[in-house]
């Protein structure tokens, strides 16, 4: 990022190669659409480039990057609530093609149970309030610490801890049939 800030525009390619997959994965979990997530990830890197001069090296780059991605996802979700639409590109019945492919290992009944559990967990996380969903995704899937999440979402580390606690309580209640 320091190279990009210093005027080396090719450094953006390195940043994109290094961070694209994680950002897209995070955004898929946030917006539940791969197509939208890819678009938002591209916009995230556009914002990284356009904001390169305001980047402060004292902050962790990943925190700054995920804060940009989170803000874009929030904006998209707000816009989507105000302008509901059904896309022909969205997965059928909330299930992507890779979720429908058979597993190379295990039994068909075991695979079916695992698939149903995965769908139930994905839906339960998707049904969480936005602030709780962000905390869970950043903590569980992105492996961020409470302090890093706090910097991304703009709250205290204690608030992140509380959000994770509440999210786990809700998920435990919704997914009790899986236990």
Please provide a written account of the structure.
It holds the Pfam family Sigma70_r4_2. It comes from Terrimicrobium sacchariphilum. With 179 residues, the chain is an all-alpha fold. Helices cover 70% and strands 0% of the residues. Helix 7 packs across helix 9 (157-174). The radius of gyration is 18 Å and the shape is globular.
Quickly describe the structure.
GO terms for molecular function: DNA binding; sigma factor activity. Helix content is 70%, strand content 0%. With 179 residues, it is mostly helical.
Number of helices: 9
Through-space gap between termini: 45 Å
| Biggest β-sheet strands, sense, barrel | none
CATH top-level class of the largest domain: Mainly Alpha
List the domain count as a whole number: 2
Please estimate the helix content: over 70%
Question: Strand pairing plus helix content: what structural class?
Answer: mainly alpha
Instruction: Please indicate the percent range of residues in DSSP E strands (runs of 2 or more).
Output: under 5%
Fourth-level CATH superfamily of the largest domain: RNA polymerase sigma factor, region 2, helix turn helix motif
What is the gyration radius calculated from CA atoms? 18 Å
Query: Could you name the ranges where pLDDT drops below 50 across 5 or more consecutive residues?
Result: none
Count of strand segments: 0
| Quaternary structure annotation | single chain
Instruction: Output the CATH topology of the largest domain.
Output: Rna Polymerase Sigma Factor, Chain: A
Mean of all residue-level pLDDT scores: 85
N to C succession of SSEs: HHHHHHHHH
CATH architecture of the largest domain: Orthogonal Bundle
Backbone shape: globular
Domain RNA polymerase sigma-70 region: 15-82
Keywords: DNA-binding, Sigma factor, Transcription, Transcription regulation
Family: Belongs to the sigma-70 factor family. ECF subfamily.
Protein name: RNA polymerase sigma-70 factor, ECF subfamily
């Amino acid at each position: 990022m320091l190279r990009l800030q210093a005027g080396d525009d090719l450094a953006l390619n390195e940043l994109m190669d290094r961070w694209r997959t994680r950002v897209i994965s995070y955004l898929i979990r946030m917006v539940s659409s791969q197509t939208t997530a890819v678009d938002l990830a591209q916009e995230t890197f556009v914002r990284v480039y356009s904001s390169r001069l305001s980047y402060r090296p004292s902050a962790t780059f990943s925190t700054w990057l995920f804060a940009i991605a989170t803000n874009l996802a929030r904006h998209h979700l707000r816009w989507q609530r105000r302008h509901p639409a059904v896309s022909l590109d969205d997965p059928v019945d909330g299930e992507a093609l890779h979720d429908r492919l058979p597993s190379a290992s295990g039994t068909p009944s075991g695979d079916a149970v695992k698939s149903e559990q995965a769908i139930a967990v994905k839906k339960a996380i998707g049904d969480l309030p936005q602030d709780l969903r962000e905390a869970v995704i950043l903590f569980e899937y992105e492996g961020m610490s409470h302090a890093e999440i706090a910097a991304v979402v703009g709250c205290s580390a204690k608030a992140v801890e509380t959000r994770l606690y509440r999210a786990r309580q809700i998920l435990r209640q919704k997914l009790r049939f899986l236990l």
